[in-house]
């Protein structure tokens, strides 16, 4: 198969076949070379040589060339260059196939040179070959320009086949060849320069080295016709491809720099107005905010020396959330130290969003909540890419309403207070992480995650025994029947003697999303404060961890509590045993825990809640086809 490929012309091979042959010659990058210095030397030489040829062809003066200063300490690898030169200039064909098709001869020469340079990096291979060609071509041009009466120069010119450059008749006969050769040389220099530019932007390793190597095999041999225009076209295509890639990396670099600048400004800001302006309106003169109660634009200075509740969401803010914010605002306005700012988080705009946006604005105006909105129109409210990235990576926004609490000195006091506010209302004021910690200590995390369930609130208040349970639909129904029998007509002696009354609360479809959202939010807030080492905090984290391990499992799980105090979290069989105060053996099913991904934060090792071993870490990617659902929604009349 290899022989079959070597007998095919370069231009009959697919790109995959070319690359397969090229990669087979590469060992690893063991040879060291100052590639940039050698390229500078070769580029200077070839620029002078092509300029001299252009002058001879036009019978005019050569244009001045821009030259880079060479490092004086650089010593070119002359022996390697001579070996490459010999390989390029040796014209003897090794096979009948090569004699019949010069292109196959050139192709095999290229492969031979690549094998010789197998220990060099890809860019070094290209530059070494280019430099070897520059050495020969430059020498020929120097000899061609030497005075004709110099006998030594005449002899060397004859050996180097340089006389063709002096003979006007021969020069005109081969004029197009020289024009094409100069084009190829100039394009090659530009392509290699593109490669170096690309390396600056990334760790890009070009796959186009085979074409570069082959192009440099085009050597003028006396009166022999050379078809160089095909190489010129190929190089132009490569250059276009590389330039596009350079633009991509330049764009990526610009985005990275913009993001780094945003992070620095936000992390070092000491004024809330500076932080918000950089986040929502860094490059616009349009007033960044709109007063939600009047729908009139206002300047960001209205937030000077204010504490800000930064509501971040898409256009799906529920009436419940709006009503909750109204209650909170009515309490906050007594002090006039807090303001609410809504940032619509819209990474992509759709046709239906304009109407949704206007409808939501109307609701806000009707509720008479004087919060501030960024901005009054869809055209101006879209955040920059770096701001969207910051909100997702630094504040862990997950496409659900989130409230970031900022003080007047631009310090983040809580990355997401929405669950705290829903669970504790204004008792959580001023909505900081420290307040959340105190409330969790005093009232327990079960209040935090089940505030939306009315029967839970009553049971917690009356300090009843509560069995909160969930799982798949069949598991819930099956356990519900057994549990009702257990707590109503149980013949269990201990339960009867203790007069234990247990309230059953299933987590079904209606409250699944809300419940697990609260659990995940609590887990994230605990993960961000992983430095806690007190026993109480450790117990809370283990309980949340264990509960999360049941989220996407078919196993029916349960939380047993007395009022707000959690007794245990486990699989349903273990909880049932706990109720009956009997021991039983536990199953050996694997314990899984799926936690939300937090960009920039590596999860600490987790201990299994059942066997106490360190849990294995895996990565899971999930897609619920939100983009397809949005597209389908936009098509509806």
TrEMBL record:
Sieve element occlusion N-terminal domain sequence ranges: 14-216
Residue ranges of every copy of the Sieve element occlusion C-terminal domain listed in the record: 510-571
Biological-process GO terms, alphabetical: phloem development
Top-level taxon in the UniProt lineage: Eukaryota
InterPro entries given in the database record: SEO_C (IPR027944), SEO_N (IPR027942), SEOA (IPR039299)
Protein name: Sieve element occlusion N-terminal domain-containing protein
Organism listed in the record: Fagus sylvatica (Beechnut)
Organism placement in taxonomy: Eukaryota, Viridiplantae, Streptophyta, Embryophyta, Tracheophyta
């Amino acid at each position: 198969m290899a022989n079959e490929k070597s007998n095919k012309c370069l231009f009959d091979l697919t790109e995959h076949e070319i690359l397969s042959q090229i990669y087979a010659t590469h060992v690893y990058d063991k040879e060291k070379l100052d590639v940039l210095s050698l390229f500078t030397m070769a580029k200077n030489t070839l620029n002078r040589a092509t300029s001299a040829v252009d002058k001879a062809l036009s019978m005019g003066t050569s244009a001045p060339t821009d030259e880079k200063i060479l490092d004086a300490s650089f010593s070119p690898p002359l022996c390697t260059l001579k070996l490459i030169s010999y390989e390029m200039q040796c014209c003897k064909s090794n096979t009948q196939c090569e004699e019949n098709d010069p292109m196959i001869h050139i192709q095999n020469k290229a492969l031979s040179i690549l094998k010789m340079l197998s220990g060099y990096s890809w860019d070094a291979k290209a530059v070494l070959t280019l430099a070897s060609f520059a050495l020969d071509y430059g020498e020929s041009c120097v000899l061609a320009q030497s005075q004709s009466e110099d006998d030594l120069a005449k002899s060397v010119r004859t050996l180097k086949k340089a006389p063709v450059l002096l003979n006007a008749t021969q020069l005109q006969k081969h004029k197009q060849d020289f024009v094409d050769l100069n084009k190829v040389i100039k394009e090659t220099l530009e392509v290699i320069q593109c490669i170096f530019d690309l390396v600056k932007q990334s760790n890009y390793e070009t796959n186009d080295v085979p074409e570069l190597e082959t192009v440099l095999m085009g050597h003028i041999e006396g009166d022999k016709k050379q078809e160089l225009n095909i190489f010129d076209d190929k190089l132009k295509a490569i250059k276009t491809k590389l330039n596009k890639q350079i633009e991509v990396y330049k764009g990526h670099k610009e985005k990275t720099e913009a993001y780094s600048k945003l992070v620095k400004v936000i992390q070092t800001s000491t004024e809330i107005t500076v932080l918000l302006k950089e986040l929502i309106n860094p490059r616009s003169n349009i007033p960044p905010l709109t007063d939600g109660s009047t729908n009139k634009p206002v300047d960001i200075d209205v937030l000077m020396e204010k504490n800000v509740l930064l509501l971040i969401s898409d256009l799906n803010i529920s009436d419940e959330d709006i009503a909750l914010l109204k209650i909170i605002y009515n309490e906050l306005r007594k002090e006039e130290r807090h303001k609410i700012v809504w940032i619509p988080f819209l990474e992509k705009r759709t046709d239906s969003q304009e109407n949704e946006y206007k409808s939501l604005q109307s609701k806000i105006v009707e509720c008479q909540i004087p919060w501030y909105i960024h901005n009054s129109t869809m055209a101006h409210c879209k955040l920059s890419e770096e701001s969207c990235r910051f909100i997702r990576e630094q504040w862990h926004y997950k496409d659900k309403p989130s409230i970031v609490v900022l003080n007047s000195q631009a310090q983040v006091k809580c990355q997401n207070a929405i669950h705290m506010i829903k669970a504790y209302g204004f008792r959580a004021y001023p909505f900081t992480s420290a307040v959340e910690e105190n409330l969790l200590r005093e009232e327990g995390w079960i209040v935090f995650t089940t505030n939306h369930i009315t029967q839970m609130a009553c049971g917690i208040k009356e300090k009843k025994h509560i069995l909160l349970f969930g799982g798949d639909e069949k598991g819930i129904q099956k356990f519900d029947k057994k549990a009702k029998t257990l707590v109503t007509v149980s013949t269990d002696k201990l339960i009867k003697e203790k007069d234990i009354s247990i309230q059953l609360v299933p987590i079904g479809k209606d409250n699944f999303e809300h419940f697990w959202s609260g659990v995940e939010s609590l887990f994230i807030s605990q993960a961000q404060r992983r430095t806690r080492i007190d026993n109480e905090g450790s117990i809370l984290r283990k309980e949340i961890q264990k509960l999360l391990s049941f989220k996407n499992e078919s196993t029916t799980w349960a939380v047993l509590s007395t009022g707000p105090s959690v007794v245990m979290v486990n699989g349903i069989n273990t909880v049932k045993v706990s109720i009956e105060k009997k021991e039983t053996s536990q199953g050996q099913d694997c314990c899984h825990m799926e936690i939300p991904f937090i960009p920039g934060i590596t999860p600490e090792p987790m201990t299994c809640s059942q066997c106490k071993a360190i849990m294995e870490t895996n990565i899971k990617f999930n897609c619920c086809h939100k983009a397809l659902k949005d597209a389908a929604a936009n098509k509806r009349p």
